[in-house]
Write a structure and sequence with these properties.
By secondary structure, the chain is α/β, with parallel strands linked by helices. The chain folds into two domains: about 15-25 and about 270-375, Aspartate Aminotransferase, domain 1, CATH 3.90.1150.10; about 25-270, Aspartate Aminotransferase, domain 2, CATH 3.40.640. The chain contains ten helices and twelve strands. It has helices spanning about 25-40, 45-65, 80-90, 105-115, 215-225, 235-245, 255-270, 275-295, 320-330, 360-375; strands at about 70-75, 95-100, 120-125, 140-145, 145-150, 155, 170-175, 190-195, 205-210, 295-300, 310-315, 345-350. The strands form three sheets. The chain has a seven-stranded mixed sheet, sandwiched between helices. The protein is globular.
């Protein structure tokens, strides 16, 4: 393949479009460097670090307008660890899960493998769509996903309801890893809204954050007192206890905490969740309008209401090699546009997190057109 050099005037000012780890703002890095002499390399049990944890907890409480009684809890391990935490500490007997991609399926798998739980009910749908939750009397926990990162499918979060509108009795657990901060949500429709900071929050991975309702806090306490064996690292009650002290059970990544705090405060200073979600909305409109009008591309998710505003997946027609496009883009400094590996489609996957300027998404689409023209 001949080398293709994209004209500099077409290139985005920042070429990072990965679905996680995501673009880290330079202003957040500047704040980290300024704090480094008294922050990095210090004890996480002392005020210097605990103050940053307090910033994170207070900032997220403000960002999501959490109701009275809800708490912001955090711990190490990322969302992958939280699936196991929820399996041990939040599901009483039987759960229901919506499985419509690589990541939404993983919580269901954890519940299926737990010998102390009944087999869960799992509703699945083909890639590019999502199923609907169904209120059931025997279900004590519902596992939903706000945004499926692998496929670019977005869901509207609401408590499952019986006919007539009565809400379900079980708690609602929402994986918001790639959605939180970039998609609007009513936290009152959830009992645990959990996520990691390497997506919309422009930080690194390895940390989980959960916004928990009083009902979820009580559920965790009851299961903790039931005698069920829970490994300390996965013990949600230990994490709750430590979070109330503005610390984590074991040593956190201090860089991750600081970058997260800076991003949350950036969102809040500019208008909160409505502002940050609007930034992603603007980028998504540019991407999907371009793909819908293209002769060689099309949004993978057919239903417009289900198209993610934070992670866009774009299919290409036969004869247009998306892998070759991604390779040329990477050679020109535009990185991480490759599709999710296990989906196996001829497509690009492009993040539109709030930290990405919509003008750069516009430039990206122009670069893709340029590459296609010069590949053919």
């Amino acid at each position: 393949m001949a080398t293709i050099e994209i004209p500099k005037e077409l290139l985005p000012l920042d070429g990072r479009f990965g679905a996680g780890p995501s673009k880290v703002r330079s202003e957040a890095l500047d704040a980290l460097l300024a704090a480094a002499p008294t922050y990095l390399g210090t004890s996480h049990r002392q005020a210097t670090v605990k103050d940053v944890v307090a910033r994170v907890r207070a900032g997220l409480a403000k960002l999501f307008s959490i109701p009275d009684g809800y708490e912001v809890v955090l711990g190490n391990g990322g969302s992958t660890a939280f699936w196991d935490i929820a399996t041990f500490c939040l599901i009483e007997k039987k759960s229901q899960h919506l499985s419509f991609g690589e990541f939404s399926s993983k919580f269901a798998q954890s519940a299926q493998m737990a010998p102390f739980l009944e087999d869960p009910i799992v509703f699945t749908s083909e890639s590019g769509t999502h199923p609907e939750a169904v209120a059931m009397a025997e279900i004590d926990s519902y596992g939903l996903t706000h945004n499926e990162t692998s496929t670019g499918v977005m869901t509207k979060i609401a408590r499952p309801r019986y006919d007539g509108g009565r809400p379900c009795e079980g708690i609602v657990l929402v994986d918001a890893t790639s959605a939180a901060g970039g998609i609007r949500v009513d936290i009152e429709e959830t009992d645990v809204y959990y996520f990691a900071p390497q997506k919309c929050f422009g930080s690194d991975g390895g940390l989980w954050i959960a916004i928990m309702s009083p009902k979820a806090l009580a559920r965790a306490a009851a299961i903790g007192a039931s005698g069920r064996y829970i490994p300390p690292f996965l013990d949600l009650n230990i994490a709750i206890e430590n979070s109330r002290l503005d610390q984590t059970y074991n040593t956190p990544a201090l860089v991750t905490l600081m970058l997260l705090a800076e991003q949350v405060e950036w969102f809040n200073a500019n208008g909160g969740l409505e502002w940050s979600a609007s930034r992603s909305d603007a980028s998504a409109k540019i991407l999907y309008d371009w793909a819908s009008q293209s002769a060689v591309a099309d949004p993978f998710v057919r239903e417009p209401a289900q198209r993610s505003t934070v992670v866009g997946t774009i299919d290409f027609i036969e004869g247009i090699d998306a892998a070759a496009i991604a390779k040329v883009l990477r050679a020109n400094g535009i990185v991480d546009t490759e599709p999710y590996r296990k989906l196996g489609r001829n497509q690009l996957r492009i993040s539109m997190f709030p930290g990405i300027d919509s003008s750069d998404v516009q430039r990206l689409t122009e670069c893709i057109d340029y590459v296609i023209e010069n590949l053919s």
